[in-house]
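Look at one such:
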Amino acid sequence: MTTGLKRGVATLIVAALTVGAGYWFGKQQSVPHQDPQFKSSALNDGASTERKILYYRNPMGLPDTSPTPKKDPMGMDYIPVYEGEQEATAGSPNLIRISTEKVQKLGVRVEAASLSTLNKVVRAAGRIEPDERQIYTIAPKFEGYVERLYVNATGQTVGKGQPLFDVYSPELVSAQREYAIASQGVEALKGANEEAQRGMRELADSSLSRLRNWDISDEQVKTLTQSTGTRRTLTLRSPVAGIVTEKKAVQGMRFMPGEMLYQVTNLASVWVIADVFEQDIGQIRTGAKATVRINAYPDKQFSGAITYVYPTSSRRLEPFRFA
């Protein structure tokens, strides 16, 4: 009995030792981070993720740097520069490295270098103006009064030779009478000596030249000279077909010599005056083609050619003209 009891106790002790050893071995297998080699690897990985700050640079790109954090005169924080981000070449403090994210935001594109023709399109805002060579002013060279208006509105279309207004001028009436008297004197002195006839002809020619110097057409002068009586008024006509762009004549008003009464503009062709920036003026050449788009006609495109580049500039803008 005693011997059997001892054997049973010894068997229980061996079983307990076996279970304890199995538990300890399984614990070591389930917790691999307790391995000294694994601990060393984890510490190295953590240290590699921590970057070292070398210095702090000016946020505006200025060459000054600082070993400690600070602010610039505008209150902006200096930007830290980490190890590995320093300038690639020594002696270049102004070199700036741009991150991949900023490159994508800026839309930077990379292309293989090759020989090709570079064409640049210059865009500019412009304004449409009349051709200065097609603007005509009606300004009588004599004093008078506006008797009657035939064209009495700005913007009215007129044709070449169309009546604009009738004028009464005492000077015009006087010149007609002088010519009529001189013409009658020439007829009356046909039998007189040559010197008397020559003097009367010179007086008649002088009166006729006076009428012509007032820009009265030959047809109107002929009508005045062939008339048996003196005409009180004279009709002034448009010298060109176009649009009345300015009208100062009012019925009954008095005008002085050289005073503008009408302005007629031929709008068959117009100018486009455009202003470009100074850095783009090198692309502008006389004769170059130009395309015009107008907000009023978004579906239409007008073509022209540059006819003149102005020699002066204002506020960094250089004007040019094309028609």
Notes: DSSP finds six helices and 16 strands in the chain.
